[in-house]
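cron nightly-structures :: item 1 of 1
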Amino acid sequence: MAAMNKRTAVPGFAIGCFLFYMLLPIVATYAFSVATRWDRSILPEGLTLDWYKAAFTDQWFIIVFKNSLVLSISTVIASILLIVPTAYWVHLRVPKARPLLDLISTLPFAIPGVVLALGLIRLYARPPLMLARTPVMLVAAYVIFTMPFMYRPVANSLEAVNIRVLTEAAQSLGASWGRTLRQIILPNILPGILSGGLLVFATIFGEFTIATFLVGARYKTFPMQLVYFTRRDGRIASAYSVISFTIAWTTSLVILWIAAWGAKRTSGGGKHPTKGHTTGVVGD
């Protein structure tokens, strides 16, 4: 009995240390964002919301928040439109190309953001394109930068379902390629798409390097303003960080709720497979 308790205590202690290590910086950031002063003792000397008030009343807050939100959502949509059909086609029709696609999807990990930004500027700053230093080019760069985060969950979801059987069944009932992808494949790989979308959104909302090099002050983003206050007042910068954390967590909860709702709806529809799936494929 004592040996069993010892074997149980060791993993519990390791997990506790890991959680403490991961959560301590976040808790400290939250505490610093509401501290009146925290430089002479181990605990904050007072509590205040003045730093949040300063952050929310900053003239750039709404602008940078909107810019980052638009960039994040646009990148998620562009990634889904580009990567999902490509991954589906490769897994279905060109399975020998999957290792090459896996290799290409890992390249953004090996290419620093600075190199990617400078390369895009040199390539697209020339006429007649002149797309460099525009939000359009920034979204295109973000799609490349976040490709692994979108492709890997989608590829795992495609490998988890028999897409060949689903596609052949849909086409035997008269569905086109677009309708098969939209009404049959997408609902089956929705968890992977949502997971990839969450990773892309969280990454882009907090991305600083590529945005600074590609657009700079022409299209200021939330992280740019955060870095600005880091150099000016760390307490306001902490408030900005907390707001960014909160947005990421809220987005995660919303996406998880959507995934749970979709899974519940799918399981509910599974009680009448003939009525639901057949109508979905061939009906108008």
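cron nightly-structures :: done
The mean pLDDT is 82.
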